[in-house]
Amino acid sequence: MGEPAPDRRPGDRDHSPWNWLLIVPIVLPLITTFYNASSPDLLGFPRFYWQQLAYILVGVSTTTLVYRMTKLAKRRDGEG
Questions:
Q1: Closest by alpha carbon to 22, among 53, 72, 52, 67?
Q2: Which residues cross the membrane (predicted)?
Q3: pLDDT tens, residue by residue, 22-74
Q4: Most exposed residue of 8, 11, 18, 59, measured as fewest CB within 10 angstroms of its CB?
Q5: Which residues is 42 bridged to in the sheet?
């Protein structure tokens, strides 16, 4: 269960530069000046609510992009 995959050594880690992009969905919601207002409304929802949903979309998109680019880089390098 805790054993590494057969094609990887125990000390191997993923050091892809794409991983730095994962900081964006973490830091973005912490910047309060982005959502510290009640306007503009979107479909009747105040800014705070629809912007929180937008942050979820940014997080999912960023995670998907990093996953695919890391997988592509590994395939290109012949690691699997």
A1: 67
A2: 18-37, 49-67
A3: 999 999 999 888 877 778 888 888 888 888 999 999 999 999 999 999 988 88
A4: 11
A5: 45
* Residue owning tokens 């929180």: 52
Q: Are 12 and 4 in contact (CB under 8 A)?
A: yes
Query: Would 23 be classed as within a structural domain?
Result: yes
What range defines the domain where residue 42 resides?
17-77
Domain count across the chain: 1
What is the pTM (predicted TM-score) of this model?
0.71
Q: Please give the Cα distance from 32 to 77 (Å, whole number).
A: 41
What's the N-to-C CA distance of the chain in angstroms? 20
Q: How far apart are CA 61 and CA 56, in angstroms?
A: 9
